[in-house]
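Re: export button greyed out
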Amino acid sequence: MTDQKNPFSRTLGESLREFGVTRRGFLKFCAATASLMALPPSMVPAIAQALERAKRPSVIWLSFQECTGCTESLTRSHSPSVENLIFDYISLDYHHTLQAAAGEAAEAAREAAMRENEGKYLVVVDGSIPLGDPGFSAIAGISNKQMLEETVAGAAAVIAVGSCAAFGGLPHASPNPTGAVSVGDLVKDKPVLNISGCPPIPTVITGVLAHFLTFGALPELDELGRPVVFYGQSIHDRCYRRPFYDKGLFAETFDDEGARKGWCLFRLGCKGPMTRNACATAKWNQGTSWPVESGHGCLGCSEPNFWDAGGFYKALSIPDSDLTRNLGYVAAGGVALGAAAGALNRSTQAKAKQKHETVTIDDLDKKS
Amino acid sequence: MSESIDFLLWVRGPGFDIALVIFVVGILIRILEILVIGRRPDYAEPRGAELGSGLLTLVTRTAPEPGVFKRSPFTVVGGYIWHIGFLISLFLFVPHIELIHATLGLKWPGIASNLVDAVAAVTIVTLIAMLFSRLNHPVKRFLSGPEDYLTWLVTFLPMLSGYLAYHRMIDPYTLGLGLHILSVELLMVVFPFTKLMHAFTFALARWYNGAMAGRRGVQS
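Workaround output, generated via the alternate export path:
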């Protein structure tokens, strides 16, 4: 944003060098990105070359019904990394939290970026869009829905960052008081890429941006519109605690022996088996750790409706109803019905016995 | 995916409730009917005790008669394999124990999931082989009615869907797991009203046979 007037004046390579990123550091980033995106090593020089020459694409970041956690995830790295420099040195022309401009000037910056880069800019959205009442969430008097429609009209692609933008997220949670919907629910005529997570992994966001800069196109997406390279496998499949699951060794509470020994957290409600994300491999806070490593089960935050998926601390396969606790009453009902059925059968039997007429040899003789 | 979570929540919630009520109430009705109707009093002087022979028969009938085994070894061996495999998959797979613990409060140690996986694979193959045998053997086919095929299906589906869910062969996982739970609910609903009740009534039948033989002083 330092370069608001002419966002295309410098290449990404120039910007990175200016900020003291060495060639070695840059290549390391390219190699890590290539491996993260499951590209062959031969692609590393191509990525480096493409990124080196890439003009800073204009990015308009729209924040709707959100908590700013996604922006925090991206910007609060421990030290300046290549990831966040790349993030900084895309031409971020509009971002509520990060931009200096305010009020009309801010909106003017958005409109200018849209005009100047018609058909080429990227729109990044975090937060869901309320359809219930435009007043639930509006910016500069413009409803979220209107702003999204306006901004997306001339965009090359839309990236929905975070589970709110991708799937509706927490605002969408039952009973969904604002009528929140995802970006994909509204945008049908542009490519929409979902980077889900609450928040998403920073490396995944920069990885997608790097892919866009390198190939000029969005990566391959899964059925939920998420890049397959990052969301192709479940947490469970890549979890370092998986061997304990297979051996049947589980932590029963958060402070028992099993928990201390790092056993599987399935019984404590880990949603790893249903969740597709790169946490187990990419990790958080620059590879320091991730939820399961720090002793808490996965919440499934990169999956739609994770908030309403039946309780964070309940194992996936466990029925969630009060009936199981009241099985005694069900059994009592069964016993009562069984006894009633038995009594009915007995009375039928008794009646049959009463009606039974004894036939003697004399009776038979009479008839014949 | 969001639909599949809703589906999972339904089969895990109201669906399970419905199936559990039908299962528990149905089984209790069937067993109590048998117990309440009782047996005709035997006024003859007993020649031996009922208890020992009754209990013994509960166990001895688990082994096949030598003649039966000679005549149809495949049916006997196949029957053993899949019954044992089914019971191992049902009662020794850790997530199942977890379910029973949450439902009934009972808990026991499980075995390694990959071991259960291998057992499940053998069970599935055996069940398919048993169906082929039923369809191809003229006598078996003659003796089989719709109920036999229905009970085969509701026994087979939980095994198959469980295997697919464990190996995550159905995407999304929540759909696979939901289908597995649904197939078990189908089994639970069909269970009390078909020959599947033998899982409970076998004990009554064996007891009556053994006890009656014991009372008459003959071998059961």
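Chain B has a mean pLDDT of 90. The button fix ships in the next patch.
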